[in-house]
Fold Transporter.
Amino acid sequence: MKNLTILAFLLLFGSVLQAQQKEWTLEECVNYALENNLSVKQAQLDTELSSIEKRDALGNFIPNINGQATNAWNTGLTQNVTTGILQNQTVRNFSAGVTASLTLFDGLRNFKALQRARISQLAAEYSLDKMKDDIALFVADAYLQVLFNKQDLQVIKAQNELTQQQLERTRDLVDAGVLPEGDLLEIKATDADEKQRIILAQNLIKISLISLAQTLGIKDYENFNIVERDYDIFGNEILANSVYDVIEKAKKERSEIKIAEANKELAEKDVEISKGAYLPTLGAFFNYNTRESGQGRIIGSEIDPENPTRQIGLVQETEQIVVAPNMIPTLGSPLPFFDQLSYNDGMTYGFQLNIPFLNGFASRNQVRRSQVAAKRAQFNLEQAELDLEANVYQAYTDAQGAFQAYEAAIVAANAQEKAFEYANERYDVGLTNSFDFSQAKLRYENSQREVLRAKYDYIFKLKVVELYFGIPVRDLKF
């Protein structure tokens, strides 16, 4: 049993350690960011709000039904609900009712509001798509920056290994009296500089990893790492399309244009809604109410023995007083609660027509404000199209230039490699000094770094063009 417990602990510890040491691919980073990035979550909240707005618009088509109930005690001079006489008393009264109202016609504003809510929901979805595209590019850029920093560190370490070998050879040659002491000092200075750059490169890797982790919403910075793999350059066939083809595709596919078009439709719908205030509104209503009281009910009557008659009139010709028996009602216990509700209920129903004549120019001014907003939305759409054209031109030109820079960097790196090999051979036979050798080595190292920089710069800029061409962010290949 003890051995099984130890084995289970080791397996659990191993699985936890493996989970902590997980290395993320670019595709995993992008997918994780699309689900967990805070900006994406905020854009998703906007889509939820648009769904609620749509439900509000749908709710305008169903009746409003409200119920109310009151149970109150009145003390003092109040009307007796049974006899109708004012008297000092304490009585309990209960009342209840249900009211329903329905808009039958409101200048089609409810119908237009529903259409507007649907457009608003589409606009929120387009904004979410744009946010996902932006986050995917941001993650890709940050990921490629980490990868460049890692491979840059490998280049510096590889050059330092050569420096270490050269340092040993130079020390032997100085000890043998073939080279002066200054050459050894020059190589040592180069070695110290490279070790310093190794430390700086390691710090850059940590900083770039933290930046990427924050974008993904990962807080375990210490155990966050990426897969170190060499990304190939492919997909450049997208540049075989003319820039005008990319622009036309972008206008049909990009969220920027869809958002601007949706905003234009929203503004136009606001104009239609505001014009609805010019038209009459027709509504229907229904009310049911009832009451119950703790006041006693009249069960009979008898002549007042102290005052058996009461004056009810006067004959003008004879001035004769007309009297009638003075009856006193006999009160009994109130009827049961539900019986009273049944006897005392009533209904009110009908239609209500409102015709606008003059409201201080409020409706007309609102229409004008909506029309100004619609014109502004039209201008924003035209500006979005111009901005998209400029951005596509820029991205397309940048991608072409990045590819040319990458090819030039490869040619330069090959030339610097041969130059370094030649300088190394000359240094080994004493035909060049350590300073010239170090300079040749530095130029070779810089050319290798430039190849890496140009490569990842081209990969990123190529993905930007692919997004403009309408390739979904999850389908981007690296």
About this structure: The chain is about 60% helix and 20% strand. Residues 4-20 have pLDDT under 50 and may be disordered. Residues 23-62+106-279+356-475 form a domain with the Outer membrane efflux proteins (OEP) fold (CATH 1.20.1600.10). Strands lie at 23-24, 64-79, 86-105, 225-226, 281-293, 297-303, 309-315, 320-325, 327-332, 346-354.
